[in-house]
């Protein structure tokens, strides 16, 4: 009886979020500090104030490699306001940080890569050690640290999204980022120059 009541309350919370105009996945992104490819810790909260894409991936996964190229381009185009963090699941096969360093060099990845663990997989996906799952997965986080969208190939409702994953990945990032403000135009002085003022020299 208690389990049924808990399930009903969870479904009610989802419905309330939807009717309130919020995505059902809206929640605070769990913070993490994971060893990076260079040995230095990669901490999510260090990028608070920026839009962040967390990609859970595997270095030998061709779909992850393709997504990485899309994310690298978007990161370079929006580096002042966008951060991308790749969280690798290579730890499951005994892969070390050298694997991440090699991957980033071979594929030209300049955004942070970190070695994940079961703790972060549980926090983000509810997975338990030994549980099967597929990659890549994506979490889109706003500057306040809220997950505004997430995509997983193991979720039936995301099947169509992953049929055109590369295009949808780019579209989702661009939708998340607000339009950039146009650069302020310099004001030109009008009227005759004041007597004694230096004239502008033309090259």
Question: What's a concise summary of this model?
Answer:
This protein is α/β, with parallel strands linked by helices. The protein has helices at residues 2-19, 62-77, 97-107, 118-125, 159-163, 165-176; strands at 27-28, 33-35, 41-43, 51-57, 82-88, 113-115, 137-141, 146-151.
Structure description:
The protein has helices at 2-19, 62-77, 97-107, 118-125, 159-163, 165-176, and strands at 27-28, 33-35, 41-43, 51-57, 82-88, 113-115, 137-141, 146-151. The chain is globular. The N and C termini lie far apart (84 Å). The model is unreliable at 5-23 and 193-203 (pLDDT under 50). A hairpin with a 5-residue loop joins strand 2 (33-35) and strand 3. It has six helices and eight strands, in the order H-E-E-E-E-H-E-H-E-H-E-E-H-H. With 203 residues, the protein is of the alpha/beta class. The chain has one domain: Glutaredoxin. The strands form two sheets. The protein has a six-stranded mixed beta sheet with strand order 1-8-7-4-5-6. Strands 2-3 form a two-stranded antiparallel sheet.
Secondary-structure map with pairings?
Elements lengths: L1 H18 L7 E2 L4 E3 L5 E3 L7 E7 L4 H16 L4 E7 L8 H11 L5 E3 L2 H8 L11 E5 L4 E6 L7 H5 L1 H12 L27
Parallel strand pairs: 4-5, 5-6
Antiparallel strand pairs: 1-8, 2-3, 4-7, 7-8
Helix pairs in contact: 2-6
What are the defining features of this structure?
203 residues; alpha/beta; Glutaredoxin; two-stranded antiparallel ribbon; 6 helices; 8 strands; 34% helix; 18% strand; globular; disordered C terminus
């Amino acid at each position: 009886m208690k389990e049924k009541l808990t399930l009903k309350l969870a479904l009610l919370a989802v419905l309330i979020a939807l009717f309130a105009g919020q995505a059902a996945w809206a929640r605070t992104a769990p913070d993490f500090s994971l060893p990076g490819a260079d040995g230095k810790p990669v901490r999510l909260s260090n990028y608070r104030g920026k839009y962040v894409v967390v990609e859970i991936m595997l270095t030998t996964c061709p779909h992850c490699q393709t997504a990485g190229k899309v994310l690298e381009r978007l990161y370079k185009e929006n580096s002042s306001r966008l951060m991308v963090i790749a969280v690798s699941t290579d730890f499951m096969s005994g892969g070390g940080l050298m694997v991440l360093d090699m991957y980033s060099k071979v594929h030209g990845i300049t955004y942070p890569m970190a070695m994940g663990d079961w703790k972060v997989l549980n926090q983000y996906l509810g997975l338990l050690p030994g549980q099967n799952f597929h990659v890549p997965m994506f979490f889109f986080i706003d500057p306040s640290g809220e997950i505004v969208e997430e995509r997983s190939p193991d979720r039936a409702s995301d099947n169509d999204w992953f049929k055109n994953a590369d295009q949808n990945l780019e579209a989702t990032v661009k939708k998340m980022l607000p339009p950039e403000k146009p650069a302020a135009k310099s004001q030109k002085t009008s009227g005759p120059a004041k007597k004694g003022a230096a004239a502008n020299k033309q090259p």
